[in-house]
Each structure stands twice: as structure tokens, then as C-alpha cells.
Amino acid sequence: MYDFRLDEVTEWIAGKGARTIALQMPEGLKSHGQELAKEIERRTSGRCVLIADPCYGACDVDRRFSDYADVLVQFGHADIPSMQAGPDVLFVEVFMDMDISELLPRALPLLKGTVGVLTTVQHVKMLPSVVKWLEANHHRALVGKGDSRIVFEGQVLGCNISAVEPLKGLADSFLYIGSGDFHPLSVAIETSLPVVVVDPLMQEVRELGELRERILRQRHGAIVRASQAERFVVLVSTKAGQNRMEMAWSLRHLLEEHNRSADIVALEEFHPDRLLPFDADAYVSTACPRIAIDDYLRYPKPLLTPVEVEIVLGLRSWDDYRLDSIAGD
Ligand code: SF4
């Protein structure tokens, strides 16, 4: 099912003359790690170190790899070009070409007019055939290219749906090929258009209207709960591709201008227990936009996004709500 593209990987390692290679991958691929390490060692004169820490995205390059390895190879994610990970890091997208021929007809009745097609990096190679299939079924199909945080046409990240921008005003609905609901949920909230998920792993088709309403209710509740908050803690991730320190300082300034206190707290791995020593009525996450939405129930205090702080302070209306995102340069 997976293509780890080891010819390209070993050629790159040889070109670097690397002796020690750090291997990083998301949880879903970790069980292949030992086999990959063995094969890379067999094909090169190098030795491999497997990184066990969680790896949620390309934003999450292990900063300390150069302490013990010459290069780092991260499997499963596309580069985030605007992050500039450096010449000793290689991102190896792991493409998956899966059969969705039985799912697409089930998506058809849920789609309207011109269809914007989106996916995650794993499935970008499937887009041309999906576009062709839509056109054969009387839908105009459009694929947009995102900003400098994005490599492939039609690709979206949980933190970046800029591939939707060029399709605004043109698409009447969106078809998302991929697993999980967070990426297409952002699209549903941002555009208010029907978003249909074709999930090749679960072999499922679903429309996101109901989830959109549930999440909006949840976020509205968090904003209401935070509206009386006086002490805020603004959280900053130390991960390279999630770090928005300037935004954190601006938020602190904004909160103080509105007679709230705010402290900046930096951390690598977010966990509610890490925040126990700090006094706060509400938290604001400037890190991965998924944290505030996916982990909402784990935090005893409201955990807001930067957009939601603007609503709490009366600087933005609820009608102008959108999920947080991290733009490229
Ligand atoms: Fe994925 Fe979050 Fe990293 Fe964006 S910031 S790439 S959504 S883990």
C-alpha cells in the first residue's frame, strides 16, 4: 500500500555523504520504521536512528537531530517550503493510490455544480483521475494551488486550506479525498458550502454539514465562557513550523489594551498538565490550529484560537468566524 521511494531516499543520503541518518515518521507509519531502517542501512553505508517522539506534520521536524545524526529523513509529509527546514532534511511524501471507484458514485448525489477537489499529500496522485471521473459525470471540477506552505495542487493541511482561495466564487461544493474530518471541516466553515468526504481508508462517504454545526456550537460556547476571563495565558509552540511568537506578542498587547492580563508560555508538546502551574481563566493557542479544536475537552479552561480572542474582545463578529490557519509567507 505504501511507496517509501527508497531509491530517491538512498540517492539523497549518498549525495550528502551522510553516516548517521535520523528517521522520523507519523504514528501510522512507525510500525514500518525498523524495516525501513534496515533497508536504508543495507543500501547505504550509513546507520539509522529511529525517532519515537510523535510527529504530527512537516512542521514537527526534530530540532535536535543534528546532535546525533548528519541528516534527517521525514516520511509521510510534504515539505512546508516557507518553513525552510534546511538542506539536511528530506521530506518523503508517501503516496497512496487507493481504489475509491465504489465510493465516488455515493458522493455524487451530495455534490453540487462546480466541484472543488481537495486532498492531503498521501492522495494527491489520485486527483487527476477524480477530476476526470467528475467531468465524465457532468460536473466541472477545479483544483486550486495553495500558498507557500503548500507543495502540491489541491493539497490542504490541517492548518492551511489556501488551495480553496482560487476557487472561491467558482466552486458550488467541495470533494475532499482523505481520512479524518479536520481539514475538510475548515473548508466547510470557511466557505459554508457542502463538503463531501470520500475516505479511502475507512471506505466511507460523509457530508460535513452536521459536524460543522456541532463544532460551531462548541466554539461559540468556548467564546462565551472566555468572555469574562481576566487572566489569559498565550501558548506558543517551540516546533519550527508551528511557532508564531510574533502573533503571541501581538495577542498579549491586544489583551492588555483591553484590560486583560496575559502571559506568554512556550512549550513543545501541548498537554493540560503542563499548564497547571500557571494562573489563567482562559488559554489561547498560537500553535497548530487543530489543538484548540481536537483537544477542546481535555482542557479545564477555555482554549481559544487567535480568531476567537478577537471575538471575545469585540473586534470581530461571530458572523465572521473562521477556524485558525497558518499562512505561508
Ligand atoms: Fe499539521 Fe498542525 Fe503541523 Fe499544520 S501545524 S502541518 S495542521 S500538525
Structural notes for this entry:
The chain has 329 residues and is of the alpha/beta class. The chain contains 10 helices and 13 strands. The chain has helices spanning 6-16, 27-30, 33-43, 104-107, 127-136, 182-191, 209-226, 245-257, 289-294, 306-312; strands at 20-24, 47-50, 71-75, 89-92, 115-119, 141-142, 173-177, 195-199, 204-207, 231-237, 261-267, 282-285, 303-304. The strands form 3 sheets. It has a 5-stranded mixed β-sheet, sandwiched between helices. Strands 2-1-3-4 form a 4-stranded parallel β-sheet, covered by helices on one side. A 4-stranded parallel β-sheet has the order 11-10-12-13. Strand 7, helix 6 (182-191) and strand 8 (195-199) form a beta-alpha-beta unit. 43% of the residues are buried. The mean pLDDT is 96.
Specify the overall morphology.
Answer: flat
End-to-end Cα distance, whole Å, is 34 Å
Structural class: alpha/beta
**What series of H and E elements makes up the topology?**
HEHHEEEHEHEEHEEHEHEEHEH
**What does the average pLDDT come to?**
96
Total beta strand runs = 13
| Amount of helix | 25-40%
Number of helices: 10
Bound small molecules, by name, code or SMILES, are: iron/sulfur cluster
| Strand order in the sheet with the most strands | 6-5-7-8-9
Biggest sheet features: 5 strands, mixed
Tell me what portion of residues adopts beta-strand conformation. 15-25%
Low-confidence stretches: none
